[in-house]
Amino acid sequence: MAYEGNWAPLSPYTTGIRGRCPRCGQGHLFNGFLTLKPSCEVCGLDYSFADPADGPAFFVICFACVPSVALAVWIEVMFQPAFWVHLLISLPVMILTCLLPLRPLKGWLVNSQYFYKAEQGRIDRGSGGTEADNRRNGSN
What we know:
This protein has one domain. It is built from six helices and two strands. It has helices spanning 12-17, 55-79, 83-88, 90-99, 102-115, 131-137, and strands at 30-31, 35-36. Strand 1 and strand 2 form a beta hairpin. Helix 2 packs antiparallel against helix 4 and helix 2 runs antiparallel to helix 5 (102-115). It is flat and about 65 Å long.
């Protein structure tokens, strides 16, 4: 049960990276590694507004996976090591650079959605459209 109150805006960076509630900064966002809780245990904020979708995975792929794969390719080209060397060096680097940033990124995205009041996009079908819009909609 949520209670009303005046909440000062909190930075989505500090609360999100720590996995805290975007409204009070005290409650936890996650059940387990990446599963969002239904609501904040401190202030009662319902987390159903949050939909980070594939955002965290996209950022990890762009900024963590690509460099770690480049490292593995560089090791292969420069040293041509045995397969077990990649298992000892490349695989742990890829796992660490891919898994560690997922939770802070997801927390940051959820907190940013709350902070900036992000909503699903809607098409504005107002009467102030252009002439082409009016023809397309059947208006004259």
